[in-house]
């Protein structure tokens, strides 16, 4: 069956890429709480995203990329190529007293490990949330030579990620640990770190892999340096409030601006033409967010209102932007096929001729769908797997089957949830249900370490 094959496909064999070509750099950008409805290139009308829209126009835009509904499981799957069921991160890591999970470098290997083993300079910045850094400082063991992250807590006290930010990782003086910068804006500092790592690798004439896990536009919704209100550390830090939604458009715009600055820096460093840029969101927009999006309809384009679905196993919670750009190499266009987060690792392995990972992976390379010469054809993915804690489901382009047995049609943006199908099914629907049931079982019994 195709569903089983998708779980067992090997990576492209080493040496299959053009050996005479220089190895490309990779900049992997992950926005925080960003569904497809937030970007203009996906029909979004609520926010200004000109830089990402230009990136999409010059690269490949995927319309059906799926994450998990929360950050930690999505990040672990993205970096390992393995489902939450297998990589040990089925839930959000946010409370050191109640959640003991962490991405264990003794058990798991990330795409950064593969890049470092292949001779790349590796770095990461922004939001980690795959361990409590004050307890388990794991980024280096998971492949990152240098890193700067926002620590959720320091010595039991919550920290700020935006105004008056706190940091954990490689300090400017060469030591490693926590520090703060009262007069700074956190996203600016991480953006500067990414640009410095680009310069560091370029000066050393080393290829680089940089994982840029942006903090924006996750709550607390607070002013940015471009907002009319003065930037300050708000009361939301102490009260756990999400802040004020009036600042969300400013935060989305500032996220877009930082991406544009980094792309401009790549160009100034002479690295843009040989850099694969991958942009994604880690899950859908927050449940407190309502956005507008233009979608096609039988009578022409129409505007729909899309409530955010973060934390839900719906398209609003798991359907996220995916843009891949490599100027002059990736063919511009739109891909409407299915992609899930585990697919990014084998795709980058194909594009950059990386060594095979030691663990079996769930992902399937989509490098052949980018128009890059020399990439081996792969069977099209016909379903994706999504997980939140113990809840799991598989989704095709037309239907969803949960691990609790609910089988329902996929709904469009802004439409009311469809009731599970019950009673006798047509032969075609029964065949679809059986296929998705086999996929759920295949993921569960996948031969991990």
Describe the structure.
The protein is α/β, with parallel strands linked by helices and 449 residues long. The protein has a single domain (2-393), classed as Alkaline Phosphatase, subunit A (3-Layer(aba) Sandwich), CATH 3.40.720.10. The chain has helices at 2-8, 50-58, 71-80, 84-87, 111-117, 186-203, 236-239, 248-268, 315-318, 344-352, 427-444; strands spanning 25-31, 60-66, 121-127, 146-150, 153-154, 157-158, 166-170, 176-180, 208-213, 275-281, 290-295, 302-307, 319-325, 333-340, 384-388, 391-395, 399-402, 407-409. Strands 8-7-4-3-9-1-10-13-2-14 form a ten-stranded mixed beta sheet, sandwiched between helices. Helix 6 (186-203) runs parallel beside helix 8 (248-268). The protein is globular, with a radius of gyration of 21 Å. The two termini are 23 Å apart. The model is unreliable at 1-19 and 235-239 (pLDDT under 50).
Brief account:
This protein is of the alpha/beta class and 449 residues long. Helix content is 25%, strand content 22%.
Terminal CA distance: 23 Å
Instruction: List the uncertain runs.
Output: 1-19, 235-239
- What general outline do the C-alpha atoms trace? globular
Instruction: Give the class from helix and strand content and strand pairing.
Output: alpha/beta
SSE pattern = HEHEHHHEEEEEEHEHHEEEHEEHEEEEH
Number of strands: 18
Arithmetic mean of pLDDT: 92
| CATH-assigned homologous superfamily | Alkaline Phosphatase, subunit A
Radius of gyration: 21 Å
Strand order across the biggest sheet? 8-7-4-3-9-1-10-13-2-14
- Percent in strands: 15-25%
Number of helices: 11
> Fraction of residues in helices?
10-25%
**Reported CATH architecture:** 3-Layer(aba) Sandwich
Main beta sheet: strand number and arrangement? Answer: 10 strands, mixed
How many separate structural domains?
A: 1
């Amino acid at each position: 069956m195709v569903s089983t094959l998708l779980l067992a496909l090997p990576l492209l064999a080493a040496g299959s890429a053009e050996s005479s070509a220089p190895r490309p750099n990779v900049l992997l950008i992950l926005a925080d709480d960003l569904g497809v409805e937030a970007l203009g290139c996906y029909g979004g009308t609520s926010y200004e995203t000109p830089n990402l829209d230009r990136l999409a126009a010059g690269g490949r835009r995927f319309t059906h990329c799926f994450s998990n509904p929360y950050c930690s499981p999505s990040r672990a799957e993205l970096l390992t190529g393995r489902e939450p069921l297998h990589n040990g991160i089925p839930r959000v890591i946010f409370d050191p007293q109640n959640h003991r999970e962490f991405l264990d470098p003794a058990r798991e290997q990330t795409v950064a490990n593969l890049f470092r083993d292949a001779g790349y300079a590796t770095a990461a910045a922004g939001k980690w949330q795959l361990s409590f850094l004050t307890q388990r400082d794991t980024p280096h063991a998971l492949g990152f030579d240098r890193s700067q992250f926002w620590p959720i807590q320091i010595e039991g006290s919550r920290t700020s990620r935006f105004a008056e930010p706190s940091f954990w990782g490689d300090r400017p003086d060469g030591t490693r640990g926590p520090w703060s910068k009262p007069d700074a804006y956190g996203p600016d500092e991480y953006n500067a770190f990414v640009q410095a790592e680009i310069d560091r690798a370029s000066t050393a004439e080393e290829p680089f892999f940089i994982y840029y896990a942006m903090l924006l536009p996750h709550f607390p919704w607070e002013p940015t340096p471009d907002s009319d209100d003065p930037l300050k550390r708000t009361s939301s830090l102490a009260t756990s409030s999400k802040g004020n939604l009036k600042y969300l458009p400013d935060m989305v715009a500032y996220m877009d601006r930082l991406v544009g600055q980094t792309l401009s820096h790549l160009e100034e460093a002479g690295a843009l033409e040989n850099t694969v840029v991958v942009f994604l969101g880690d899950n859908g927009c927050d449940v407190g967010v309502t956005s507008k999006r233009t979608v096609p309809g039988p009578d022409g384009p129409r505007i729909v209102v899309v409530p955010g679905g973060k934390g839900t196993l719906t398209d609003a919670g798991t359907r996220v932007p995916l843009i891949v750009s490599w100027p002059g190499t990736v063919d511009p266009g739109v891909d409407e096929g299915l992609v899930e987060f585990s697919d990014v690792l084998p795709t980058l392995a194909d594009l950059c001729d990386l060594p095979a990972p030691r663990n079996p992976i769930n992902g399937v390379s989509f490098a052949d769908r980018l128009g890059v010469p020399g990439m081996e054809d792969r069977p099209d993915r016909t379903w994706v797997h999504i997980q939140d804690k113990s809840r799991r489901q598989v989704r095709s382009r037309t239907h969803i089957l949960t691990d609790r047995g609910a089988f329902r049609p996929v709904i469009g943006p802004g439409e009311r949830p469809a009731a599970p199908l019950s009673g006798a099914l047509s032969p075609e629907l029964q065949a679809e249900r059986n296929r998705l049931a086999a996929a759920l079982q295949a993921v569960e019994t996948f031969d991990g370490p």
